[in-house]
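ingest -> validate -> predict -> emit
validate: passed (alphabet ok, no gaps, 663 aa)
predict: started
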Amino acid sequence: MQEKERKGMKRKDDHPKTVCEASDELIRKAAADGVSTVFERAEAMKPCSIGAEGSCCKNCSMGPCRLPSSGKLKENGEKRRVGICGATIETVAARNFVRMIAGGASAHSDHGRGIAEVFLAAAKGEIPGYEIKDTQKLFELAMDFGIDIDEFDTREIGIKVGELSLSEWGRQEGELVMARRAPLRRQEVWRKQNVFPRGIDREIVETMHRTHMGVDQDYKNLITQGTRTAIADGWGGSMLATELQDILFGTPVPVRGSFNLGVLKEEEVNIIIHGHEPLLSEMVVVAAQDPELVALASSYGAKGITIAGICCTANEVLMRHGIPIAGNFLQQELAIATGVVDAMIVDVQCIMQSIFDVAQCYHTNIITTSPKGKIAGAKSMRFDEHNALESAKGIVRAAVDNYPNRLGGAKIPNKRCEGIAGFSHETIDYMLGGMFRASYRPLNDNIINGRIRGIAGVVGCNNVRTSHDWGHITLIKELIKNDVLVLTTGCAAIACGKEGLLLPETAASHAGSGLAEVCEAVGIPPVLHMGSCVDNSRILMAASAVVKEGGLGDDICDVPLAGAAPEWMSEKAVSIGHYFVASGIYTIFGRSFPTAGSDVVTAHLFRELEEELGGMWDVARDPGEMAEKMIAHIDRKRKALGIDRARERVLYDMSMRRELEAG
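emit:
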């Protein structure tokens, strides 16, 4: 095997760069083509150990101040070191941590704000192409806002919901409306700890103010504000984004789709939609079916137009249209390296600037569509929501026109898997209980009787500092083997799709006997795809539904439930993780933790926070260890509920039933 081939397969630590065979194939192709990818750059760039531990402060120009971790100081016999302003490592680590929460919350919540603005305009009839598709969910959201749905028609209700939704971003006092969906006991915890968010933007801005040089210098006080901000994300901006998207585009229902780079087609125009906001992708899907554009593609010799997704946009269009997924975060450059992608259309979040450089080595057009996210040198075609379909047609036309410019040397890996996606919390409710008796009762009953050991939410990004997809796949296989039902979103969900874990038949080959029995009876996979990363609010709603159904405690923290992000990378993951913790969920990150430089702050997050919020953080470098910790936590919760012992199933005859009735 040539050196270039080995370089594509292994990292310096002798771990595979990826466990995805299609990705490995294209890493080697890119290397042979002389193209730099994220995998190669990670080899060349060593991460800053002090920055990775959250121990570097650059919030003013007197620094940056690099504070070695307390462990390193003990090893070297040094005295406690502080920053130039006197800031301790606890203050610095806490500031950096809550700034990450604010960054992640702002990304998700700004996404939600954009959806809310378009929703309101659509309700008013001001923009063609968008309309209310799920009136039932509209009415439910209206009632959350206290709107009397009997007094108004659907259009008026839509306008009122849009206006009240937008007001949540600017709310200055009181409590976020969506957060009142949490179990009553959870709301009591938030009020007692003074972390119930007031307004989405207010909490983010206050976090940025508190972390400015010379403001909040108490690590516990900083973490409290970070908690308030994270809740404003998960139970505010993200939840509203999911709800309003469902009303506009339809609440997802289970749909079969295809995963991995093998979904691309050499003889067709291939368009990749990459990013996070479905306002664009929904219209690109419609535009690609326009007869005029299909005819244009045919005139160039193409047999059709294929749309495929990368990252969370991929999850959005898969759930609602069955559009195939080409890959997750670390596959965006590799998709271009196939040589058959005629355009990669991007909006915001998780988009590598390097895709433009990679595209220069092939023929692919990189088309940015949002004024918030431009790439130097790339083609900019702003997507206009007020003229959505025509705007999308123009973007698709640019992709079709690029088809004749292919350079040859195409290579599409023969790798693709089928899977079922689109399990909204409403769908789970329906599938478990049926149309007339939709209920979480069967799930609760099977957790109580032990067939299902517990529930795990496995979410998050890819990270090139670990083996691509390995953390997700290894952890999830271990969990389902131990009868833990897995709910997944984002890039983790895509990894599961590529591995074939989203098929119902997977239960028979990979799940424990109890979980497999339930999955077979209901007809679901042991891993439920619940959407994009903004849709983690669906997991919160599912957890709340379990509590509401009864039998498993009065709060989310009572449920045998754990969360994990094995390959986390972005600030959004930190915000998601912290709103899981704030909701009472044990949450574990893979590889590293951003406060590792401070033993004191880490102990507060990993132990003390559980006393305040019922949830806590943890970290494990190895996914096997992560699974052990999650299962141990689930077992502790089962014991606390008194359901840790297997119960013998008894078939009652008529005399036994009469005795029960007589008693």
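The chain has 28 helices and 16 strands.
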